[in-house]
Amino acid sequence: MKSAFLVLVFSVTAAIAAGVTIPGEGAYSVANLQGLSDEPTSVTQPLANQLLDVLEKYGLTKNFGVVGVHSHVSLAPGQVMFQHGNSTFTHQEIEVYDDVRSDGVPYTYRIMTDAIPQLLPLDLGEITPNVLAARNDLAAAMANKAFLQEFAETASGHLAGIAYIRPLERMALEHSEVVKNHYNVEKTAGNATAISLAAVESDDAPSFFTRGVGNSTAVSQITMFVPHGNPWQD
Ligand SMILES: *[C@@H]1O[C@H](CO)[C@@H](O)[C@H](O)[C@H]1NC(C)=O
Ligand SMILES: *[C@@H]1O[C@H](CO)[C@@H](O)[C@H](O)[C@H]1NC(C)=O
Ligand SMILES: *[C@@H]1O[C@H](CO)[C@@H](O)[C@H](O)[C@H]1NC(C)=O
């Protein structure tokens, strides 16, 4: 009886920190990143357009975009990538999940396209009013089981997911720029900043697609690039 009470208190506290409980949100685990490579190329722009149609139908395009899920780091069990930042710079590094779980909420999710689709957190980021507003949108979309089902059917086995549109991407889009990730050689930390479209290199791989953000009216806006080929030196 007593332990049931403690569990209840704990989950209520966690729910307050996260602002809102998202129906069907999976638990974070390093296993959620299983099978991901450093190349986000499974999601092409035409597929991103179709997946953004699903997001738009469920009221998510204001705060979420479509991501070609990938991973640059190799995490040990119990570890998580945690990010914080602002509209011009974000930093992410490896943390112990149990140490930071109450300080963050997932920013990126993988959507498994199995018979029963799953929304699986891939990382954590700091809790801000904007990300809590985004979680409200996601909770509303997830309350309708058709959302995940339609996303998974459209993704049809491709390594796809959704991610919160951070102030960094929003600012970049408003200035006709894109965001680029840079990782350290040890693959334990990364920074992201906005660069001009002219500074995009031919082997940079687009990884994040949004719609209706900033001044663009494009069907999908490419907002983030990860260097590939030789990612760790970029
Ligand atoms: C964002 O954070 C970086 C690093 O802490 C800082 O240099 C920069 O001035 C900040 N930008 C804004 C707009 O606050
Ligand atoms: C885009 O719109 C924002 C306001 O949302 C404005 O501040 C900015 O100057 C605009 N950028 C361009 C390139 O028109
Ligand atoms: C990220 O930015 C910080 C602060 O500017 C810098 O000290 C660090 O070396 C950068 N790390 C990477 C991986 O670029």
UniProtKB/TrEMBL annotation:
Signal peptide positions on this chain: 1-19
Alphabetical keyword list: Signal
Name of this protein: FTP domain-containing protein
